Amino acid sequence: MSDKLTINNEMRVLDSKHRPFYNELTEEERKKFSPYIIMRYAASVEGSADLQEWYLRSTNERVNVNFFEVSTTKHKELQWLLCTTVSPGMGTQKHYWIAPKKAESNNANTKILKQLYPNLKADELELLAQLNDAKSIKQLAKAHGWEDQDIKTK
Known about the structure:
This protein is mainly alpha-helical. It folds into two domains: about 5-85; about 110-150. It has helices at about 5-15, 20-25, 25-30, 35-40, 50-65, 75-85, 110-115, 120-130, 135-145. It is elongated.
């Protein structure tokens, strides 16, 4: 991989608002360039609460809105240019990865538990589903007044 496409270099270039960066990449480098990863890193920095809030809000307002409607294969340069607007021009910052929200499980047992316990968080529901087999979840649903035809476990 090119030294240009290390996350540290990309964030340094983003913070310096070097807008021609994408055009300076070779064709092979452009194929490897990921605006999505840039956006995820751009949203968080080390520093004061005000600076952290600035980066997060700027990323959400300027880049994240309609990000996937702008084709990542045809409009990478536009997405790069949007990312460069995030930095307030205060020098290079230390950026961190923000992991995307974990997708909810489509597991039938988890769905039943979610209906039985709507106040539980997703990870708590997953844990309950792992700790209980389909038979015990079915018994639990029956204890809550569910009919057999309403219960669809694994």
